[in-house]
Amino acid sequence: MSVSVTIVEGPLGRYEGGADGDGAGAVGAEVVFDGIVRATEGETTIEALEYEAYRPMAENELERLAQRMVDLHGLISVEVWHSVGRAPVGAVSFRLVIRSAHRKEALAAMGAFIDALKVDVPLWKRVGDAG
Amino acid sequence: MGTSSFKLDVLLFGPAAASAGCSSVRVVCDVGATCDAVRESLCAQHAAIASIVRAGRLAVNGVYVDGATVIGAGDEVALVSLVSGG
């Protein structure tokens, strides 16, 4: 059971993991969520979002939340990446990768994690300046 | 400000920082002030962010605290409100 949290300056790159499992044959499901910057915020057309974090509290809260998901849902691993700074439209700014023995617990944990993130983790976004 | 009070800089982020126009505000608190008391002082002394203070939580040294927690002059206090990550 493992958790990892990475805060990245700027957009995240492509996901280069894969469903190769953990080498021990325990992983039966890998669920990957990529949060992508949309071209609109409400009625406004935007070019980018700017993310701000209160570090290291944001990292600690993400780790605590990931560990809670592992404990509650019996997950094998949770990996989190989140951008800070500027992320242009189309870029990935948030990624959550959950691995478990079966799909049901991974899918349940995915929704629960994101809901809690939007309440507890000190991260903020605003419309970015034209870059 | 007498010896029974102290100055506390509260960190601001996101909409709170935008409303205040700065990344921290100074608040005068009584020695032994609880988290709830600091929030009340913030509202009274910084009206521009009062509604955000009421909607948010205070973190002390990077951890959310309850209203009864006593805050000291050496603590790092942050207003965490209207978070929007993800």
Report the biggest beta sheet of chain A as strand number plus sense, adding barrel if it closes.
Answer: 6 strands, mixed
Mean pLDDT of chain B: 95
What is the total domain count of chain B?
1
Largest sheet features of chain B? 5 strands, mixed
The low-confidence runs of chain A, each spanning 5 or more residues with pLDDT under 50, are none
CATH topology of chain A: Aldehyde Oxidoreductase, domain 3
SSE arrangement:
The complex is a heterodimer of chains A (131) and B (86).
Chain A: E1 2-9, E2 29-36, E3 40-41, E4 44-45, E5 48-53, H1 57-73, E6 77-88, E7 92-100, H2 103-120, E8 123-127
Parallel strand pairs in A: 1-6
Antiparallel strand pairs in A: 2-7, 3-4, 5-6, 5-8, 6-7
Chain B: E1 5-11, H1 14-20, E2 24-30, H2 35-45, H3 50-55, E3 57-60, E4 63-64, E5 77-80
Parallel strand pairs in B: 1-5
Antiparallel strand pairs in B: 1-2, 3-4, 3-5
Summary tags:
heterodimer, A: 131 residues, alpha+beta, Aldehyde Oxidoreductase, domain 3, six-stranded mixed sheet, two-stranded antiparallel sheet, 8 strands, B: 86 residues, Ubiquitin-like (UB roll), five-stranded mixed sheet, 28% strand, globular
